[in-house]
Task: structure prediction
Amino acid sequence: MADSSALLVVLGQPFMQRALFGGLLTGALGGLLGSFAVLRQLSFFSDALGHSALLGISLGILLGINPILVLIPFAALFALLVNQLVARSGLPADALLNIVYSTSLAFAVVALSLVETYRGGIQQLLFGDILGISWSDLTVIAVLLLGALLYLALSLRAQVLLTLNTDLAGAFGVGASRHRLAFIVLLAVVVAVSIKAVGVLLISAFVVVPACGGRLVCRHFPHYALISATLGGCCALLGLLGSGLTNLPSGPCVVIVQFAGFALALLLRSAFSRQV
Amino acid sequence: MTEHSPVLLVEGLSVRRGEQLAVDKVSFQLARETDTALVGPNGAGKSSLVGAVLRRVLHRSGSVRILGHALGPAGELPRAVRSQIAYLPQSLALQGRFPLTVGEFVGFGVDPPGLSLAWLGSKRRCEAVLRALERTGCQDLAKRRLSALSGGQLKRVLLAFCVVRPRQLLVLDEAQAGLDAPSSERFQELLLELRRQEGWTVLQVSHDLEMVRRSCDQVLCLNQRLRCSGAPDHALSAARLAELYGPNVVPYRHHHAGVGSHG
Result:
């Protein structure tokens, strides 16, 4: 059982401080992007992107390049290609995404099985290893968070109108394909950057769970985005602390805390409904 | 652009939807402050035509001029012209617990198109929203979730979105679809009143032929091509309706006062 002195020891470690800061930023970024992704019904898209990112990592390993350097352009390119495929094939998006992500996952696993030296690291790829986060990773995440905040603040009206009715948005001068593309690429880059902390399998939870929690308790859109980002950041912080104290994998710990946050939002909502 | 120039001028407009020609060489114009109805059977190309006039449609030929400015191939219009267009859709994709209040939604219409911090509740924006909601009888709905409104309330809120900033051209795509007879009647009365006050030029897609007969100045009968156009009495004669909807179509009268095509 972890006590307060163990907590202080954990908090005193520079790698843990970096991890907590990284978790806070990644969680907030996931919650912020997620609040828009959930409304625009792109939550499965983030899941598919996360799974497919493993293929990008495998390619990096096979080519002998730092996987993280490959991952960001791979995710952005992958998102653009999938977007085109969904637009042109006429097939339902969820079925198409299923095909794409299971195929890329299969290729990734085959590719990784060819690389003897990487087998030991597969668990970290799948479930995240935020303790290995560096200052340069943190800088990238912070810049991305600021960029996402700026873009979403300026395009909030366009994003909401596009969600409500594409014709209404079009008549209002909103470039539907331009904004969809920009959002999807942003989501892909966020997913790629967060993989290190969260892992391939659980990345979609970072995007979806805080946003759904926020949606349960908010009626105003700016509050909803803010609460989702705060919930994402705080849950990541608590989950990482739990992970540091118990020596359990960081990604699952964060997701369990996120679920607790979601359950709390459900309780708050039903309590509030009863009062009304 | 003079006072007598048409607000909307469409010349030889054709729209392709996949392999099919949805609209074939259609020409018409809307004079300032007139109300024009676009009628025709399902699949006649009404929504394709409206889409081509409003926004980007890839397979389009012919010319569309709004307030004297040509609509570009990708739907480009000068921002000043774009800000003069209001559009009222049939419905909104409001999933459960959509986190947006009526006041916030109407507030999105205050600033002209473009990137902006339109969600900030400035005093100017709040006053404009309140005025628009009062004019459409929605002042009590400002704090309600958009997803919690009835069909009739939502249509009035959509009108508030259109009236929150002065515009010249209002396009409605079957705006009364899904409303019961009294709600539809109330919506039409409100639309007429606001049109007079605002000086809107209106283009509305409608299936309610009795409403069209009573309220509109001009009717465009579309079935891929423009079959006829003119004043309602001329364009909606029994012979022309039979030509447009087919010989077995009998216009029917709703129990309240409305009439629609039935076939």
